[in-house]
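Tokenise the fold.
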Amino acid sequence: MKTDEFDYSLPLELIAQTPLGERDQSRLMLVDRRSGRVSHHIFQDILNFFHPGDIVVANNSRVIPARLFGQKITGGRVELLLLEKLAQGHWLALVGGRRLREGVQIRLEDAQGQPTEFMAMVAAAHEGAQREIIFTPPIEEHLARLGHMPLPPYIHETLTDPERYQTVYAQPPGSAAAPTAGLHFTPELLLALREKGVLFETCTLHVGLDTFQPVAEEDATRHKIHSEWVQLGVAAAERINRAKLAGGRLIAIGTTAMRTLETAAQRSSGRTGSLQTVSQDGAAVCPWRPVMAVEGPTDLYIYPGYRFLAVDGLVTNFHLPRSTLLMLVSAFAGSDLIRQAYQAAIQERYRFFSFGDAMFII
């Protein structure tokens, strides 16, 4: 499978630089996998496409101010992007700067660019620009003072309200980037879904390195996806399975929720056979795998040819060319249909990437 198959040309002016004034006023493309039909809406209209009994699962990870700046003791500016907490005061990070070898010490600056008492030492060098960093004293309780919101490199405008890079339901801190499909939801829209009889559950996937790493391999199947920490609770898994057995559709809000749910279904398949769901009219539907509670790392890499076990629908943004996220949506909807949908989005002047518009694949 060639990585070039997931490339496309995007006019730079379609890369959204700022969020809209109202979250739910972004545009929404509805993509029907069975008919191949593509239609255009406002995100607020998504309420019309859910059915009573459906289950919506969203990633509730909160973005941390993970971008840090400082100066090497020997001179030279350094940038650190925190990716994964290894232990208290001990992080895996992407580094920017010269000669950041093991043992190099860095004095951190605060968010206003002033030197602080916090020191960082390179404990080990890993692949590419990855380094293990030890902070003295530990920085976890001080990130609000030291850190900057880690906006993607294609966003060049200043974000005046950092909360616009958080979902309204964000809770446990730990992500280096937002689960952006959820940025379109408002409290009012979530309440309207509940009043319609749609169930809302959360999982957690702390977004890490692969958000920032395009696929460089010519053969996409040879790409190494890095693990990310996921969690789906016991009670949530039970509620999801009960709703699915009653005929509800399982809708993932974003690719991170999709990977969490499919991980949970894969890990249940070793001990539980597939179950038969029942539609609203009582007819049998194709078998599916129940999900189980999970907590820990996942390196699930979804690309065309993957057999989905649990998820029936996906709300997602428009993704970068040659990215694992574009491969995931192509696996779910079919590569030809996604190519057509992206061409239509460009023709209709949709806004792309993190602060852009959305797609609902059913």
Summary: The helical segments are 143-146, 187-195, 234-245, 255-268, 324-333, 335-347. The radius of gyration is 21 Å.
